[in-house]
Amino acid sequence: MDQPSFTLSQSGTFVKEDFVINRQGIAAVGGTEVARVVGLRLQDLQLLEVLGKGASSLVRRAVHTPSQTELAVKVINVFDKDKRDQLLRELRTLYSSAFPWLVSFHDCLYDEGAMYIVLEYMDGGSLADVLIATQLTGSGAPSELVLGRIAAKTLAGLNYLHRERHQVHRDIKPGNILLNSRGEIKISDFGLSAELDSTKEMCATFIGTHAYMSPERLGGKPYSFASDIWSLGITLIECAIGQFPYTAYNGNNYFVLLSQILNDPPPSLPDAFSPEFRDLVLQCLTKDAEQRPSAEDLLKHPFIAMHDESLSPLDMAEWVKICTQMRKDAEIMPPS
Ligand code: ADP
């Protein structure tokens, strides 16, 4: 008989392999030793407005009242077994993350059927929020300078995930690239990441956001790190031209979209963009996964080098401020 994916004791403690989660927070248990206990308590969190909705979660702004720290809390219902399993994968990844280009994880609390994943609050929202605000306000797309910086930081995050953690993110898209008013860019939502055994670099499961999925993944073939690079290519084109690059995409024309991604030549940037940027996107969207460069290779690409912080000073904080104003003008910012 299958073992249950977790056990929930009568005291409300949620236990799964290395984790023990209760109202007092998460404790990682490595063998007999308790590696870390975080002191966040649910009663100290004041849950505020909804920041966004995910496939199985609601993200709310929150304030930790004792310290007056702003946080983002992802609330997930855990009655459903698939969601629970997805969450546990997410927890495992988040828990061991400490890298400047990944959204930080503070804690995870469990109460009355819901998990509360406490994350760093990214007050600039996501690139998806910026895209919507740009469309609604009729503003221009981000400049190549901005897109270069976004590409560089996302590649740095992916390189860390792939090389150091042996993880495929599996859900790179504008909604999972977050911004803050300090001008930082971070990758979020590791809910769909799965730890990869370094000897077995393929994921057999099929979850994620189809529109940004690589041809090998949509084709049902094994996929790996290169799949995230494809998703980044689609994300960069969408941010540059202000619309999703595949014409069939209208949110529900799934089979036409699938056919375009699998059978058509990959999308490319128009001539108006610099040759370096066009080439970076071309490289990311190499249809043959074997030929597609890695995050590490792409960090050496001329377009990334051109937007190196030391060479091209850019006030990302100022850009995020403009985007925040745009989101307010477009009325997609939740009232605080
Ligand atoms: P999905 O499940 O679709 O990947 P999420 O549940 O992670 O999405 O997030 C949905 C939305 O909530 C994001 O697009 C973003 O606008 C907002 N959001 C998520 N995490 C944070 C955060 N840490 N800080 C601020 N906003 C966030």
Structure notes:
With 336 residues, this protein is of the alpha+beta class. It has 2 domains: 114 residues, 2-Layer Sandwich (Phosphorylase Kinase, domain 1), CATH 3.30.200; 202 residues, Transferase(Phosphotransferase) domain 1 (Transferase(Phosphotransferase), domain 1, Orthogonal Bundle). 33% of the residues lie in helices and 21% in strands. The chain contains 10 helices and 14 strands. The strands form 4 sheets. A 5-stranded antiparallel beta sheet has the order 1-2-3-4-5, with no helix packed on it. A hairpin with a 2-residue loop joins strand 9 and strand 10. Helix 5 runs antiparallel to helix 7. The longest helix has 21 residues. The termini are far apart. The N terminus is likely disordered. Adenosine-5'-diphosphate binds next to strand 6, strand 7, strand 8, strand 10 and helix 2. Belongs to the protein kinase superfamily. STE Ser/Thr protein kinase family. MAP kinase kinase subfamily. GO terms for molecular function: ATP binding; MAP kinase kinase activity; protein serine/threonine kinase activity. It catalyses: L-tyrosyl-[protein] + ATP = O-phospho-L-tyrosyl-[protein] + ADP + H(+); L-threonyl-[protein] + ATP = O-phospho-L-threonyl-[protein] + ADP + H(+); L-seryl-[protein] + ATP = O-phospho-L-seryl-[protein] + ADP + H(+). This is mitogen-activated protein kinase kinase. Keywords: ATP-binding, Kinase, Nucleotide-binding, Serine/threonine-protein kinase, Transferase.
